[in-house]
Every structure is written in structure tokens, then in C-alpha cells.
Amino acid sequence: MGNLHDICRHRYCIQCKYTDCVSVCPVSCFYEGPNFLVIHPDECIDCDACVAECPVEAIFDENELPAEKQHFLLINEELAQKWPQILDPKDPLPEADKWANVDNKLEHLIKTAPEH
Amino acid sequence: MTRIERYVPSDKEKAFLDQVDNGKHDRQIINGIKKFVDGSAPQDMQNFYSPEELKAITDLDGTDRDLQKRMPIKVTRHYFEQATKSKAMRTLVKASPKETYDLDGSEDPGKQMSYSPVEGLIHKYELGLIYVASTCSAHCRFCYREELIAKKEVTRPDGTVAPKGLAQIKDIVEYVLEHNRLVDENGGRHPETGRERLREILMSGGDPMVLSNKNIAQWLSALSQAGIESIRIGTKEMAFYPKRFDETFFAMLDAFHELYPQTNLRMMVHFNHPDEFLAKDFEGNYIPHPQGGLEWIPETHAAVQEFCRRPWINVDNQSPIIAGINDDSDALRIMQRELKRNGVENHYFFCGRDIVGHKAFNVPIEKAWHILNESQKGLSGVEAHARLSITHYKGKTEVAAVTNDPVPGVKGGENGVVIFKLLRSAEDAPDRCKVTIVGRNSEAIWFSGYDDRVIIDEAELYSMYDIKALTEAAA
Fold first, then answer.
1. How far apart are CA B425 and CA B396, in angstroms?
2. Looking at the predicted structure, is the pLDDT value of residue B126 above 60?
3. In the predicted model, is pLDDT for residue A82 greater than 50?
4. Do A47 and B206 touch (CB under 8 A)?
5. In a 3-state reduction of DSSP, which class is residue B115?
6. Given this model, what pLDDT does residue B14 score?
7. What is the mean pLDDT of residues B163-186?
8. Which residue of chain A has the CA closest to B28?
């Protein structure tokens, strides 16, 4: 198994979960939790299409991921194994706009697999 | 943001798509030079670049000679492992400062944007080319789609500037249906462009094989349903990550063929050098097979065999001739012989295009012809089908012959002439096999190298730019 994921979601996705990224991903490598999306590190082909698409700029090329957000690489890897794949875009969470600019949302991350 | 309007598949397509399994693909890609610099690349890959090479590359970061901006650096584990045994493969995939010594070249070689009626579609000949992915599993340094891969801004015929976008299924299907409707209503020719029906679509990019099986399946069924008779997939995945051609992929193809038996699939593979598919012993030599021929890399051979087992699929190889990679007659002879013996047709060899930075990669036209001609000495007729092609704005052109007998009174003629043959014109068919003859110039790497020595221009490769033949100019 490689740990070569080059794109990683950081905290601004939590509680928002816009899915614009899902609609442009050529390999459908997004996985969905209750209030966060992750990218499967082995399936991602580093095309960067999603980076530009996210309305809250939550996606980084791994080479550009700031040092203080490096821990999200492991969170990505862990949750991509556990959560189901998301194939089609859907509406963001109801309070997405309110949460979009909030920092330090990691405490709100729900890691359980969604019920549906 | 712009939400893409999705293509809605028919019930027949849905039934097919429901059967498709994506499989799992662990390419172990190293993206960018950073992991080699900071030591976070896997242990065994860390010496792929020497410290001196890394310094020379990173010294250019942020300058107008930035190598990573010209073409992002990317390699798979499979290609890396084979490249440790091959100088040619290392040259193909490793960034080098010489790429940006000379930035002369065109941002849109072949003027593709002028043949693009819909975003992501180039409509030349009776063939449409679509960009379905903007990346590959690894990146060839000489790639002539650098503007797409590196997401560069390109000027369109209407003067607007934007990066090239990818084709969307809905747009392409609508275009094909409308084009073919107009052609049919007009007795076999488009009323305005004179083109014939769109019968064939080449899926390109980037590499369509980076897409998931489901995504590829959706393209195949949608194109087939729109009336496309032959679908090509242009791919280098056979060299970069042959395990991509796994059971789930062939199961998808078989399910497709069952529902759309009239559609033919043409895999356009891209081997540049036999090192990309042949096994080597510890001393770096190819391994003769006891029953004849040479041993292949097992997973690459398995992939080729799976295609050849299916009579509705053709496999053709095409490759540019690139300096330092395959400008080598012996390598090309082995490649053509082994490919043909294993069911892969040798289609075209290409002269490099005039992309930005092309001087680092291109072999002079006459030398490329000589290399290919030498490589085909000793091949049987069926092994030597490949021709040398150079892409003129007007269409695909063969470098048919280079002669040595002097032609007096012609610039460069003391050494002979070069004969170009227009194979197909991009707009229409009537100029097929017309010829242009020019005096020799051993330095020429593009048509422009012969501007001052045109002898006969029946194919109008020069007159379309108001460049006159010598006799005409003298008159």
C-alpha cells in the first residue's frame, strides 16, 4: 500500500460537505461520512480537477498542504477505508454557509459510517 | 460554480453500467519532485534522481524555465522499476533542465483549437478526438499535450483565452447526432464543411485508462448509442501500469460487446522503446524465449494477450521518435518485430511536434526517416507496416522518402530531396496522396526548415502559407 495521496481535504469541509468535487472527479475516489468527505489516497490520480471546484477551498494538492494541516493526510487514509463511495453530487449540509468560514472544526468531525 | 449538465443514459446503457465493477488500482504514483527532495518518497525510489539533478531542477522553480510548470513530474512504481534498468525510460520520465533551454515553439501545435467545435472535441477527418482526462498515470517529458496536462491558458480562434476543457458526454453525443443528421439529409456530406459522417471517436487526453471502468463504460455505451462505429482508446497505461488491464476491465468490455456487438474497439497503445515491455536479465539483456522471440514483462504480456483474444478489438502501437529515447534503429527494429509477433500492429512513428521546448526532444526529420528506414531493414513486410508521419496543419503527412541523388539548381538539392505525401487532409478527403518535394536540409525539425527550397507543392503544404516553389518564384 502506498501512502502517496496527493490531495487532501482539510477542516473547512467539516459540517459543510459541498459535493462539487464529486461531480468532477474522473475516478470517483470520494468517500462520504456524516459531515465530511475524504479522498481515497490510492485511487486518486492527482488530476487536481476537484481543487478548483470546491467552493470553500477545502482541497489541497498534497505538495501544497500547509504544515499545520498534515494530520489530515492520515484522517483521509483512515476514513476512506471505512466510509462508502459517493458517486453523485447532492445538496450541501443545511448549515453549510454558516460553517464555511469557521476554524477548528475538527472536534465536530463524526467518524462513524453513515446510517443510510 | 458551473454545474455540469449530466448525460442521462438510456435503460439499455443503465443495465450495462449496473454490471460494471471498478476494481481497485494502486498505482503508487509519485507526483512532483518534492518527495524526492524531502526524502518522503519510498526508500527504494529515493535515488531515482541524484542530488545534483534535484538541485538543477529545483533551482529553476518559479523562473520562466520552471520544469514542473512546463510539465508536472509524475511516475508510477511500475515504470520506475523498469526504468532503473533502462536509460531510455529514465530519459522519458525524468525532468531535465535541457527541456527549457530553448522555449521556442507553439502553444497549440497543429492549431487544434481551430478544429474544435465543442469544448474537448477536435473534429478532423471522419474522426473526432475527445479529451476525457487531463492527466496520465505518469508523464512523458516530451508530451505534446503539455498545455492540457499542465492546464495552460490557450488562445482560441475567437480570441478568448482559457485552459483546454474536457469533453462532456452530453455535449459530444449531441454534436455527433446533429452532425450525422445533417450529413445524412445532405446526401453524405455536411452542407457547410463537406465532411462525412463521424464514424470514429478517439478517446484521448491525458489517458482515458486513468478513468474508472464505470466512467469508461459510460463513454463507450453513449458513443455507441449515438452511432459511432469504432471507438479508439489512446493510452500509455500498458507501459505505465499494465495491471490496470485487469479482470474487471475486461469484464466491462465483454459486457459492452454483448450489448453493442457492432462497435469495434481500437486500442492505440504507446510504446516508445522495447525496454517498456521486454523483460531483462541481471545483466540488463533481453531474454530469448526458448520457442523464439523474446520474454516480455509478464503483466504487460498478459494485458496484450487479453486484448488479442477478442476479435472485435485491434491493438495498434504508435510512437514519436524522440532524441535520447528511441532515436535508435536497433531498438526500433526489436520493438516492431516483438509487437507484431504478439499481435500489436505497428501503425505510425511520428516526428516530434513544434511544442514549446521541442528542441530538447525532436530529431531532425531526415534523420528520423533514416532511423526508421534502417530499423525496418531485416524486418519482414508485415513487420514493417509503420510509416513516418508528421502532422501538418492541413493533415497527416507521411515523410515518404529521402533521396541522395543530387538535384542541380535546387537549394539543398546537391544532397537530394525529401518527399512528403499528404495522407489525409483534416477537413476533407480530396487531397489524399498528393505530394510535396523539397530540397534537403539535414537540420530541419519542422516544415519551416524547407521554406526556401520547395520544388513541387502539389499537396499545397507551403502554398497555403503563400510560400512559393522555387520554379514559381523564379518565373
1. 7
2. yes
3. yes
4. yes
5. helix
6. 95
7. 93
8. A2
**Chain B residues touching A42 at Cβ < 8 A:** 24-28
Name the CATH topology of A7-88.
Alpha-Beta Plaits (3.30.70)
Q: Distance (Å) from the C-alpha of residue B25 to the closest C-alpha of chain A? A: 6
List the single best residue of A5, A45, A63 to mutate versus B (max B Cβ within 10 A): A45
pTM (predicted TM-score): 0.90
Domain ranges of chain A: 7-88
A5 against B184, higher pLDDT: B184
Residues in B touching A26 (Cβ below 8 Å): 132-133, 210-212, 215
What whole-number distance in Å separates Cα of residue A56 and Cα of residue A18? 8
List residues in chain B touching A: CB distance below 8 A. 1, 3-4, 22, 24-32, 34-35, 42, 74, 77, 132-135, 137, 151, 206, 210-212, 214-215
Torsion angles phi and psi, residue B139, rounded to 5 = -120, 125
Contact B3 A89 (CB under 8 A): yes
Looking at residue A115, its pLDDT comes to 58
| Partners of residue B77 in chain A, C-beta under 8 Å | 2
Instruction: Calculate mean pLDDT across residues B225-234.
Output: 97
Position A74 scores a pLDDT of: 86
Nearest CA in chain B to A49: B134
- Alpha carbon of B260: minimum distance to chain A alpha carbons (Å): 24
C-alpha grid cell, residue B257: 460487446
Percent of chain B with pLDDT over 70: 96
- What is the per-residue DSSP string for B28-79? --EESSHHHHTT-S-GGGGGGS-HHHHHHHHTTTTSTT-HHHHS--EE-HHH
Number of other residues whose CB lies within 10 A of the CB of residue B118? 18
Q: What is the ipTM of this complex?
A: 0.71
Contacts of B211 in chain A (CB under 8 A): 26-27
Please name the member of B22, B30, B134 whose beta carbon is closest to the beta carbon of A49.
B134
Q: Residues B334-371: pLDDT tens digits? A: 999 999 999 999 999 999 887 777 888 999 999 999 99
- Residue A59 belongs to what H/E stretch? strand A59-61
- Which residues of chain A lie closer than 8 angstroms to B235, CB-CB? none
Q: Are strands B345-350 and B313-320 parallel, antiparallel or unpaired?
A: parallel
- The confidence score (pLDDT) of residue A69 equals 78
Instruction: Give the count of beta carbons closer than 10 Å to the beta carbon of residue B234.
Output: 21
Q: Are residues B3 and A48, on separate chains, in Cβ contact within 8 Å?
A: no
Measure the CA–CA gap between B357 and B362, rounded to whole angstroms: 9
- Specify the higher pLDDT residue, B430 or B127: B127
- pLDDT at site A8: 53
Residue in B129, B196, B180 with CA at minimum distance from that of residue B428: B196
Cell of A97: 454557509
Q: Are B250 and B283 in contact (CB under 8 A)?
A: no
- A vs B: CB pairs below 8 A: 65
Closest CA relative to residue B123, chosen from B32, B217, B44, B190: B190
Chain B residues touching A46 at Cβ < 8 A: 29, 31, 74, 135
